Amino acid sequence: MGFISDLGKVASKAWTYFTEDPTGTAISNAAVLGYTLNKINKSSNKQSDAPIRPSAVTTVGGQATSEGSSLNLHRVQLDPDTNAKIPVVYGEAYVGGKVIDARLGEDACKTMWFCLALSEQTGNLIDGTASEITIEEVWWNSKKLFIGTDGITVTRYVDQDGEYDNSINGKIRIYPFSGNSETPSNIRNQSQGNSANAYDLFPRWTSTNQMNDLVFVLISMDYFPAGDIRGMGTWTFKVKNTMNKPGDVLYDYMTNTRYGAGIPASEIET
Fold it and tell me: What is the pTM (predicted TM-score) of this model?
């Protein structure tokens, strides 16, 4: 028994939702708003509405093959979710993430690796300061996880009844990244964390797996039925973006050519 028998239960979709920062003032200029909506409607077929960018076909273990390849004992292939979209998070939000890749570790059925894309990396604030996206909390199967002093390894969890459990200590490791595969970040309140490149951690990735302009996590899980670790389970991350003021948010979405309306800055009066 191992992850092979449970991998097929990995969901192709994860729930996401957004919350708005309550601070700031409402936009009162109807002309500007109407112009913006017109531009956004025209940009509805932009990349933000396209399928997930990093990967069209996900394979697990073995070498990646075409979509028509047959299943064998060493590889499980997941059908891509062509309707999946990566959200843009402003302020704070809880996101489930989108499965980008899933692979068995070098120890065959014992360890499983997952890559979850959480959000697009946003641009600069109006004053030119780079926005920063961090992970504030991590939840697994409705249980809040606690990270050890290494900033990576899960030591225990607390369930919805307030009961603490350390049975999964050392069985799950979380590696956050913000921007690309070469920009590791820390989970909030952790003085330490991962410093390795994503492609040096994830099985069979190479330096071509850059994950550009994405906030994402790599998750390594050891098969441990006693702790109910039989598959990926349901993940939720509290994500916080320093871009939370209405003016910064609107300007970013209006001008961004990757996930926004792509309006030239010269056409906007600030």
Answer: 0.72
